[in-house]
Amino acid sequence: MTMEVDILELSDRSAKFVLSNTSAAFANGIRRASLADVPTIAITEVNIYNNTSVLYDEQLGLRMALIPLTSNMEDFVPKEECSCGDFCPACQVSLTLSAEGPKIVYSQDLVSSDDKVQPADPNIPIADLREGQKIVLEAIAHMGYGNKHSRWQAGVACGYKNMPKVEFSGCDLCGACVTECPVDIIKMGTESAEISQEDMLKCTLCRLCEGVCDIDAIDVKTDEHSFIFTMESDGSYNTKELILNAGNVIKNKAASLAEILSAL
Ligand SMILES: [Zn+2]
After folding, report:
1. What biological processes does GO assign it (predicted)?
2. What does CATH list as the number for 40-151?
3. From the CA of 142, how far away is ligand 1's center (Å)?
4. Residue pLDDT, tens place only, 156-199
5. How confident is the model at residue 136 (pLDDT cuts 50, 70, 90)?
6. Given this model, what pLDDT does residue 73 score?
């Protein structure tokens, strides 16, 4: 069976789609890869030249590290995989910040040495500076993996559930399930209660309908080979790139396994 993807919603930051004719292992592989194995660029070191804000240097460093930066797997490599041995534009990016109060310092105040590496959101607050307070620093960003530290986690709120399958047989049209359903997706037809294909996606598998039916006419099951995915990106990549990168990560791992095995 060929795997099928049915896109329900797709925007820069989030996606919802149905993945069918596949296994739970593959679905989980995509989920894990997007959380842990798709590398992103994040700030790892901060050289602070002046900080008279109310934040400790460490707090400032922590905030900087958690600002998502736009990433690009074609132009950058994780530092430990770079052939330069020290640092170069392919594995390291410098961002500077120079601000004086009174003002709120936002992520957009960071000046990057690389046009492709920019804060994914311009309005992430960093510090609230009062009159005369200053922050002057240089932040060094590297590419890395979410499995090492959450600063490099591209996917957020990535998850899936099996496609619900609710079957009605011998329904006596009592309507108890219609009123019981918390997501209000069961409608009364002429011969039986029913759920439209579109509404089936909203089923939370709570099984309340099954419990309230006195004649056991409802059977709530799941499709073991079909998954409803939701994915959000932190902005390092748009959602489409994130999913493609996750797929490529799995593909490359399989290819390197094949390479190792063929060399034996
Ligand atoms: Zn390098």
Report:
1. DNA-templated transcription
2. 2.170.120.12
3. 10
4. 989 999 999 999 998 999 989 999 999 999 999 888 999 998 89
5. very high
6. 86
Annotated ligand binding at 213? The verdict is: no
What is the per-residue pLDDT for 72? 87
Was 209 annotated as part of a binding site?
yes
Looking at the chain, the whole-number percentage of residues with pLDDT higher than 90 is 89
Model confidence band, residue 108 (pLDDT cutoffs 50, 70, 90): very high
Give the start-to-end residue ranges of the domains of the chain: 4-36+156-231, 40-151
Quote the ligand 1 centre to 78 CA distance (angstroms).
8
CATH assignment of 4-36+156-231, among 3.30.300.20, 3.30.1360.10, 1.10.10.10, 3.40.50.300: 3.30.1360.10
CA of 81 to the centre of ligand 1 (A): 8
> What SS3 string covers the chain?
CCCEEEEEEECCCEEEEEEECCCHHHHHHHHHHHHHHCCEEEEEEEEEEEECCCCCHHHHHHHHHCCCECCCCCCCCCHHHCCCCCCCCCCEEEEEEEEECCEEEEHHHCEECCCCCCECCCCCEEEEECCCCEEEEEEEEEEECCCCCHHHCCEEEEEEEEEEEEEECCCCCCCHHHHHCCCCCCEECCCCEECCHHHHCCCCCCCHHHHHCCCCCEEEEEEEEEEEEEEEECCCCCHHHHHHHHHHHHHHHHHHHHHHHHHC
